[in-house]
Amino acid sequence: MSLLEVKDLKVHFPVRQGLFSRVKGYVRAVDGVSFSIEPGETLGLVGESGCGKTTLGRAVIRLIEPTAGSVVLEGADLRKLRGEALRQKRRTFQMIFQDPVSSLNPRMTVGQIVGEALEIHNLAPDAAARRERVGELLKSVGLDPLHAQRYPHEFSGGQRQRIGIARALAVRPKLIVCDEPISALDVSVQAQIINLLGDLQQQEGVAYLFIAHDLAVVEHISRRVMVMYLGKVVEMGESRSLCRDPKHPYTKALISAVPVVDPKSKRQRMLLPGDVPSPINPPSGCPFHPRCPVAEARCKTEVPELREVTPGRWAACHLAQ
Ligand code: SF4
Whose CA is nearest to atom 5 of ligand 1? Predict the structure, then answer.
């Protein structure tokens, strides 16, 4: 059984206008997304900003209420859980946020931040046991247990992200949604955080849904990758195979934008015309057709299904093979 099974998940936000705030349309932020994650696996999720990846990550752990679809974690449909049952299940999944500054309460010490969940979920019998566990957690993310007495503003960006990771690990979750956890950090610190997440996965067996806009980062950390465009998955597959041989024109454009260190490389930068269209009124047919360099007449009217193009490789494009 997969750890997480997401089926046909939709998150549509109503757009209201006028004196009576009538609903004039919907932003289809996530529009029928399905995927699974195995225990201890990392699934990468990439796309430009506004493609719906953060909304999808939040909807999976019910920080945002989905409009339709199912999210089954260890056999339990999270959308059907309420009250105490949902509170109990919340221990199983956590989130690491993009901005380590605003995601930590500045009035709480590091010890209180990391220990809060231990208290909420009764995971330590008393204050002494809680202090000991907080010390262990800080050590596991490369911080000094004595840092528990300090406040978030006393730390660098990378250290704050380590505090956020320690907080997420406190409840021994099975799944962590990592929402662009390194994009606000200095380049020199990014690799350290990626390596830390990899080491912790080895030790704890935790699975990650790793959200990023940079395919190079996702290829490095993930076994499989999912590419999103305008609220839909347009390509999915094993990371190395997808990055070496992308099937969807949008993935090809994303890969061509990744800087290459080798000066002899012949890779051509593929510039996409126009901006990402509005998710309130997405284009007909293939939503990528107004920007697609190889679009055909049928792309304007026929919606391409996400289909298995070659074993283990899925793409939503009429021409993919
Ligand atoms: Fe381009 Fe057509 Fe494929 Fe869409 S279906 S990506 S428009 S070729």
Answer: 317
Q: What is the pLDDT along the chain (321 residues), one digit of tens a residue?
A: 899 999 999 999 999 888 778 888 899 999 999 999 999 999 999 998 888 999 999 999 999 999 999 999 999 999 999 888 888 888 899 999 988 788 899 999 999 999 998 998 888 888 999 999 999 999 999 999 999 999 999 999 999 999 999 999 999 999 999 999 998 888 889 999 999 999 999 999 999 999 998 888 899 899 999 999 999 999 999 999 999 999 999 999 998 876 665 556 556 667 777 778 888 888 999 999 999 999 999 999 999 999 999 999 999 999 999
Domain-located, residue 321: no
Taking residue 153's Cβ as centre, other Cβ atoms within 10 Å add up to: 9
Give the position, in ligand 1's atom list, of the atom nearest the Cα of 287. Answer: 4
Query: Which domain, by its residues, includes 118?
Result: 4-259+269-315
CA 120 to ligand 1 centroid distance, Å? 49
Ligand 1: list residues with CB < 6 Å.
248-249, 286, 288-289, 292, 294-296, 299, 304, 317-319
**Would residue 320 count as lying in a domain?**
no
- Give the closest residue (by CA) to ligand 1 atom 3: 317
264 within a domain of the structure (yes/no): no
For residue 303, what is the domain's CATH number?
3.40.50.300
Distance 261 CA to ligand 1 centre (A): 30
